[in-house]
Amino acid sequence: MQWSSLVTQLFGPYHGMREDGDFLQGEVIFDGEPLAVIGTTHHAPIGVRLALAQARVVLDTIARHPGRPILLLIDTQGQQLRRRDELLGINRAMAHLGASIDLARRRGHRVLGLVYDQALSGGFITSGLIADACYALPDAEIRVMRIPAMARVTKLPEDRLTALSQSNPVFAPGVQNYVAMGGVRALWRGDLQACLRDALAHTPTEDRRARDGAERGGRRLAAAVVQRVLDAA
Hints:
Helix 2 (48-64) runs parallel beside helix 4. Helix content is 46%, strand content 22%. By secondary structure, it is an alpha/beta fold. The mean pLDDT is 91. Strand 6, helix 5 and strand 7 form a beta-alpha-beta unit. The protein has one domain: Alpha-Beta Complex (2-enoyl-CoA Hydratase, Chain A, domain 1). It has helices spanning 3-11, 48-64, 83-88, 90-106, 121-125, 147-154, 158-165, 175-181, 192-202, 209-216, 222-232; strands spanning 18-20, 23-30, 33-40, 44-46, 70-79, 111-120, 133-136, 141-143, 186-187.
């Protein structure tokens, strides 16, 4: 879905969102209350400039509008693979973005992520996966690593990983698999305004991803391991 169509469905034709290259930003009114919206488009690669631009808006919202909810609209192909960004410290810029979102949550801002098109690797990890909860549209594409790349990293044959992906969501891309693993809390279908309204009202502030993954059968051991660590602390 195009971002312009999405925000029109969410906030009406006079939403006030603006596009600056791959960067989306706006302060919208939803159900009579202000909402900060930050996002990316055009399958944006997240480089230093884009990571810092998003972090700047998050920090400005914390400073100027305490408690204002933040919606992250996600469409990214992942980390910008350029020598310039590596030399400028892209790892630190992306960590800064993630830390800014985490700070917003700790300061009482409700932070929601919505994958409306594509979400890959580091660009997703430092945005939607750090929100209070991440949601997605049914046609969204989500993955951290393609099976050929996973084979190179794990040293397992591609056919073995392909077979594993049929029964284990951890090895498979796709939005339904991320729902099963708990990384995506739910899919938004139908009335998107109603979906956003429900998410703002009922999304838990504690991290439920491991528990959701266990309950849904897509990530069976994480919650138990986390609990064992907490019990031993």
